[in-house]
Amino acid sequence: MRDDWLNPYRHRPSLIHRLPATAKLAAVGVGVVATVLLPRAAWAADAGMGAVLLLVALVSSVPWRHLGRQLLLAEPVALGIALLALWQADGLRVFAAMLAKSTLCLSWVILLNATTRFTEVLRVLRRARVPALLVTTLALMHRYLFVLANEMGRLLRARRSRTFAAGRRAAWRGSATVAAQLFIRSSERAERVYAAMCARGWKP
Amino acid sequence: MNALEIRHLGYRYPDRSEALRDVSFAVEAGERVGLIGPNGAGKSTLLLHLNGLLPETPAAAPAVSVFGTPVAEPHLAALRARVGLLFQDPDDQLFCPTVWEDVAFGPQQLGVRGAELSDRVARALAQAGLAGFEERLPHHLSRGEKRRVCLAGLLACEARLLALDEPTSDLDPRGRRELKALLAALPVTQVIATHDLELVVEICPRVIVLDRGSVVAQGPTAEVLNDEVLMLAHGLERPHILSHRHPH
Amino acid sequence: MHIPDGFLDAKTAAVSAGLAAAGVAVALRSVRRSADARRVPLIGLAAAFVFAAQMLNFPVAGGTSGHLIGAVLVAVLLGPSAAVLAMTAVLVVQCFMFADGGVTALGANVFNMAVVAPGVGYAIYALVRLMAGDSLRSRLLATAFAAWCSTVAAAIVCAGQLALAGAAAWGVAFPAMAGIHLLIGFGEAVITTLVVAAVARARPELVDSGREQTGPVRHAALTAYGLLVALGLAIFVAPFACRWPDGLEKVAATLGFGQRAAAGPVLPAPLTDYRIPGFKSAVASTTVAGGVGILVVFGLAYLLARALTPAIAAAPRRPKGTSTGA
């Protein structure tokens, strides 16, 4: 599993891609906050914000299908919570307004993700004096996420090759064992990474 | 002054079984020495003693000294720069988000900053044949490339003694060739623990045989490796390459 | 339970962010003061583990499957502060890279899932262990019960935040969130316990108490988390929960039901199971169901722990190696 399965379009040469990560993060921060602060059901303002986003998406040359798919993946949660609003006075309007807002905000984040590399975000966080321990945790997590996912894939395949009983109970036991093995291997790897860090002079 | 001197080194595993027993040998500056032996002989354990990662609690009288300095406090911090340990699994060693950051990690710990840092990293990457890899992500690299990044990270620290744990394991033939050429070209003292007997024949003039924690033989490579009885007795075998040589 | 953007108003988002920041700060401080440098890569790897493990499928029924959340798993195996940091990292990445959880709601999500969940989970774990002893069986019992409680607690705080922000009335949010998570928590309890049991079987020393720090650092951190959770409950839940005898009449009026007797369900089918005949509202039903749930889950947790521990003794801790030299 490579990093690219998350987002294959991060390396496009568009104008948006080439903007410094700090600017993009700041823009998204402002964009999201602005969208959230817009009055509820202010349809004109929502449409304006939507136009801005469409423009950015256009310039970024990220395929529409990819953006659309990301949006569809992210919507259900917003939909679910927005549904709760239906049981209020004026429920339908509130529901629609919430959905519009959350869709706009989701689009901001999806565009950010499609045009910015996580390693750059890490650098921005470091420069912004976010506590080192937290940034290191994020960095290590990102670094080893794919390593662990691959290991998990191997463990799952091995387990599937040895599972002859069908049914939920076998599946639960199987997944639990895989999770346990993964945790143990991650623990052991953490020890080795610690040794490697110390070997190159790391002092916490 | 020898690059590495080990005198009567012993080590017990946590379950009290012996890992190393009375190990003694020396390595001259600039030498490339192969460390061979069957699985479980203690090769990796031995390498971990070279920069003080083992023993967990420092011994009162350290058995290992590197360039005249005993491997014990308060010298450990300085030694970690001078002794570069290449781990068996490059994924354990390549823990930074990008190649550049990982190669820069060591020098940064040493306090190197700014232009000098960039220079060191660039030079190390060039030496390892990885110019242009700066922004690459570790999980996009092949195993051979990852190994070379780890090596570059050690070179950036200006290590004078390299301890390499199975550097060619898991490499495809091309990766192996590239790594072998790199190691052969490095003017740094090297101790190479490996199963790759052909590698030893090709680039190590001297070899040390370890079995069950003890040194059972050491000497010129051709001499030791030609001794079939010795090789078989210690879980090894005489490599074919001694009979004929192909330029690769 | 990831709240998207646009559902929380400024005050709720800001207060939640403040509480979250405080919780993360406590965790950072606790890890730093433990002076065990090994924890740094361990927490990073734990975060990667949680992320990966959340992708594992635990088939429930039809095409649906449950997934591990992981807060209590990490808390039990590595301690509460490690869990806070690992879950925070996971949530941050989910927010920015997967649009899972809103940017403005990040504070709330971190507070719910990275402070409340591990905090409540670990506190209950420690409490049950205190009462039930240190055997593996009691540990598993504690794990199962703690996992359920932590899921429900996080859901309740989440409901409170939505209600305070005006996104959904308490009378709707609470039964929906807490109600559903009474069930989800059950899955989390079973999954977490199965995993801990499997780890104990393979590497018992990873589950034994030697791995946890004790002493003033841990206690201070726990107290801090407890305070933060209490604050969260006070700010987000108490205004609704305490008023509920009267508040519910108001809610019923807002919903347009007035004096209608609760003959039919207030909310569609799935929640009718939580209604007890004679109660006027889903909130009361959910609360009672929750109370009953606590007892039921504790009992089930005990049964699960028993099923998983025929006779496993904890292995002795690995002592360190020793070197000799001239």
Number of strands of chain C: 3
The largest β sheet of chain A comes out as: none
Calculate the terminal CA-CA distance of chain C, rounded to whole Å: 61 Å
Question: Helicity of chain A, in percent?
Answer: over 70%
Radius of gyration of chain C over all CA atoms, rounded: 21 Å
Uncertain stretches of chain A: none
Q: Which chains have the largest interface? A: A-C, 75 and 75 residues
Strand content of chain C: under 5%
User: Roughly how much helix do the residues of chain C carry, as a percent range?
Assistant: 55-70%
Pattern of helices and strands of chain A: HHHHHHHH
Instruction: Spell out the helices and strands of chain C N to C.
Output: HHEEHHHHHHHHE
> What is the number of beta strands of chain A?
0
> What is the global morphology of chain C?
globular
> Strand percentage of chain A, roughly?
under 5%
Which radius of gyration of chain A do the C-alpha atoms yield?
22 Å
| Separate helix tally of chain A | 8
Question: Which whole number gives the mean pLDDT of chain C?
Answer: 80
Structural class category of chain C: mainly alpha
Q: Mean of the pLDDT scores of chain A?
A: 83
- With strands numbered from the N-terminus, the spatial order across the biggest sheet of chain C is 1-2
Textual characterization of the structure:
The complex is a heterotrimer of chains A (204), B (248) and C (326). Chain A is mainly alpha-helical and 204 residues long. Chain A has helices spanning 15-18, 21-37, 43-60, 64-84, 91-115, 118-127, 132-161, 168-199. In chain A, α2 runs antiparallel to α5 (91-115), α6 runs antiparallel to α7 (132-161) and α7 packs across α8. Chain B contains 10 helices and 10 strands. In chain B, β1 and β2 (18-27) form a beta hairpin. In chain B, α4 runs parallel beside α6, α5 packs across α6 and α6 (143-156) runs parallel beside α7. The two termini of chain B are 35 Å apart. The mean pLDDT of chain B is 90. Classes of the chains: A mainly alpha (204), B alpha/beta (248), C mainly alpha (326). Chains in contact: A-B, A-C, B-C. β1 of chain B pairs antiparallel with β3 (322-324) of chain C, so a sheet runs across the interface.
